[in-house]
Amino acid sequence: xxxxxxxxxxxxxxxxxxxxxxxxxxxxxxxxxxxxxxxxxxxxxxxxxxxxxxxxxxxxxxxxxxxxxxxxxxxxxxxxxxxxxxxxxxxxxxxxxxxxxxxxxxxxxxxxxxxxxxxxxxxxxxxxxxxxxxxxxxxxxxxxxxxxxxxxxxxxxxxxxxxxxxxxxxxxxxxxxxxxxxxxxxxxxxxxxxxxxxxxxxxxx
Length: 205
Prior knowledge:
11 strands; mainly beta
């Protein structure tokens, strides 16, 4: 699996929606419900399975502390660590001990880290599907369509984020499926403080 394409994955619950489609009945109510659920999340911890377009897979543990912070801790032998904090997204290869940083705003996952999540404003809803108890919503930034899109897949009863799909600007697709989702726990801030030089002292393997 290419390490620089590891930001999304999963199980194929629904095909990705076409760009033009018939509106789903009660679409605005469904979007409002998904929006309220996402905004209710302060912290989240889950196991994840990630599958890239080339079929490569990886597993690990995901942490989200809204707003602004996220961490993907990959299981061995995958050496990659991804951390978002303070408006920056760190890609760190534990074997090479080599970090690289990009702005969080340049990644589709920035949507999940906003202080207030809204399916409106600068966010364009590109597709909504509903099937078999699952709701699928595809979004992208209106002013930056070249950054790619993010598709969120929710179980409806109860409402729970189960999967997301990132399609980057080159059309490459990565899916992330969440399992054993927990919310509302305390997460140590040190999980996300990669701007502290001591952060990397314990990241070698």
